[in-house]
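Tokens for chain A. Residues wanted.
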């Protein structure tokens, strides 16, 4: 190029680059790519153009080629923090978390005053679930550029990861204040508000997210969850169905819709959708085992042997085990795969020919098909009016029963009441269903009552702090498996418990049980029943306001005083 032509060429390239950036910001990526390539034809060593071409290609779904161009830019300008920041973000986005983090750390070290570098380093640390480490970098980015919505957003996500819910809500509120069209921030804010038990506000935030991005399946599921918490099943179901319209096959929406339908007694559709619980997208979903036999899909099983596998929690195992005798009465030979804690109790179930605790043992048991225990109602065509509720359907070992009878005889004629105040802490709704130990203090008003703690796990230590007037016997150390617990429950007059495995066990044994339910109960307890349709000896004590355990315990205390009459 002649020297006299260079100023004109530079001017043209500058205009081309400006237009390319404008098209990028408008998300017109194909046009932006063409413009950057045109600029590079004139000046192939323009590092800014190389960098931005890489960014555009990443947006167009070509990470390998994008990294090639950004690496070319870095070779030309190795001290440019912005290029390293972009490289780190692309690596992070495409799952190369360690490499992305290393790039972002180099970028922040090169230019610690760059809000983009600090923000992206925080984002890279978020990707590694290093929430506490991410926070100072997001805060630094905010200090450098207070109106940087993404930095507020990333700070909120880090605080959410640490379960600092109130702080997370404030940070995410700052994100949407900085950018009211930030759909992802509205969505994250909605999930935090739901966790803060502010479902009405969560609905509004979901609606804001959907105003910004109409086809946002995650926000639609969050909207359904918030409506469900407000006990508006119709609106919840509509939100889940809309999510499935936007994203057909979206497993989370299918699963949440299944729970919504089952809670209303719409079993035909609900059981079908409930099969989505195995999808890897579902938090905590268990991958189906590799089996040398086919999964049962409803084929004729007369004269066949079926392997039934446990799943989910202990309560689910007990609740759905009721369907096994129906199969046995049809001439099906049942092998039940149970956990070690459940094995002996499961063996008492009618029709169980063999129990195993390892899938490998089942391979040699001569089974023709296998299924999960919670899939049985679907395969058996169980409708809302056909729930088998004959109890007891589990039995107690006579030797263990005799042992507990002798153990409890020392308490004479006192009313003997089992007590369990907390469920498994990893359960998604445990923060609503479990009760702080001190909230049980009003139970001291019942006269001539001895309480027996069957609480296990870390929460059993709560009982170390005595409540005035409550006579408590701690039994958790003597409960080695569910057969032990069954024997104890059979000798007690009553069980009072939150929604956890012991209520299912007491119900399956036909023992009196009072189940304490949050305002937003699990699907199986529905919204209006006072006696469970699953267990005829179970009374349901419900919160009338979200979080209000005081009124529930007051009703229980009053009824307990009259229980012996």
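Reply:
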């Amino acid at each position: 190029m002649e020297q006299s032509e260079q100023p004109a060429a530079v001017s043209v390239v500058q205009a081309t680059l400006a237009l390319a950036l404008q098209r990028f910001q408008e998300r017109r990526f194909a046009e932006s790519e063409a413009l950057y390539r045109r600029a590079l034809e004139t000046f192939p060593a323009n590092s800014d153009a190389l960098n931005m071409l890489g960014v555009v290609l990443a947006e167009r779904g070509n990470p390998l080629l994008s990294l090639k161009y950004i690496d070319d830019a870095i070779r030309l300008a190795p001290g440019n923090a912005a290029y390293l920041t972009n490289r780190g973000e692309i690596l992070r986005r495409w799952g190369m978390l360690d490499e992305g983090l290393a790039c972002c750390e180099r970028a922040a070290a090169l230019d610690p005053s760059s809000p983009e570098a600090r923000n992206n380093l925080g984002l890279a640390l978020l990707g590694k679930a290093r929430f506490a480490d991410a926070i100072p970098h997001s805060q630094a980015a905010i200090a450098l550029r207070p109106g940087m919505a993404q930095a507020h957003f990333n700070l909120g996500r880090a605080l959410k990861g640490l379960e600092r819910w109130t702080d997370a809500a404030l940070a995410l509120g700052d994100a949407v204040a900085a950018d009211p069209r930030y759909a992802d921030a509205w969505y994250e804010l909605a999930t935090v508000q739901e966790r803060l038990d502010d479902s009405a506000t969560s609905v509004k935030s979901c609606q804001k997210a959907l105003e910004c991005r109409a086809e946002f399946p995650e926000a639609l599921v969050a909207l359904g969850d918030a409506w469900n918490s407000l006990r508006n099943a119709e609106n919840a179901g509509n939100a889940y169905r809309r999510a499935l319209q936007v994203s057909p096959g979206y497993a989370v929406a299918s699963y949440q819709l299944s729970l919504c339908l089952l809670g209303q007694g719409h079993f035909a559709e609900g059981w079908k959708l409930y099969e989505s619980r195995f999808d890897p997208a579902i938090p905590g979903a268990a991958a189906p085992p590799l089996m040398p036999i086919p999964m049962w899909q409803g084929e004729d099983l007369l004269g066949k042997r079926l392997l039934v596998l446990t799943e989910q929690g202990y309560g689910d195992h007990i609740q759905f085990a009721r369907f096994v005798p129906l199969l046995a009465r049809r001439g099906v030979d049942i092998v039940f795969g149970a956990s070690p804690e459940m094995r002996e109790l499961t063996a008492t179930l009618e029709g169980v020919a063999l129990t195993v605790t390892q899938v490998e043992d089942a391979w040699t048991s001569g089974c023709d098909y296998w299924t999960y225990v919670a899939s049985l109602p679907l395969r058996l065509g169980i409708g809302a009016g056909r729930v088998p509720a004959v109890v007891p359907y589990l039995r107690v070992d006579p030797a263990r029963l005799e042992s507990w009878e002798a153990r409890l005889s020392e308490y004479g004629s006192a009313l003997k009441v089992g007590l369990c105040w907390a469920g498994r802490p990893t359960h998604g709704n445990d923060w609503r269903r479990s009760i702080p130990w001190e909230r049980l203090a009003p139970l001291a008003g019942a006269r001539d009552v001895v309480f027996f703690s069957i609480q296990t796990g870390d929460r059993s230590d709560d009982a170390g702090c005595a409540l005035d007037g409550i006579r408590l016997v701690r039994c958790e150390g003597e409960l080695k498996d569910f057969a032990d617990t069954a024997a104890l429950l059979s000798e007690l007059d009553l069980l009072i418990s939150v929604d956890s495995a012991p209520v299912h066990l007491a119900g399956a044994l036909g023992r009196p049980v009072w189940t304490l339910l949050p305002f937003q109960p699990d699907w199986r307890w529905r919204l209006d029943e006072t006696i469970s349709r699953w267990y005829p000896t179970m009374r349901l004590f419900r919160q009338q306001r979200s979080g209000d355990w005081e009124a529930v315990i007051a009703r229980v205390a009053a009824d307990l005083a009259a229980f012996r009459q």
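Residues 180-287 form a domain with the Serine Threonine Protein Phosphatase 5, Tetratricopeptide repeat fold (CATH 1.25.40.10). The chain has a mean pLDDT of 93.
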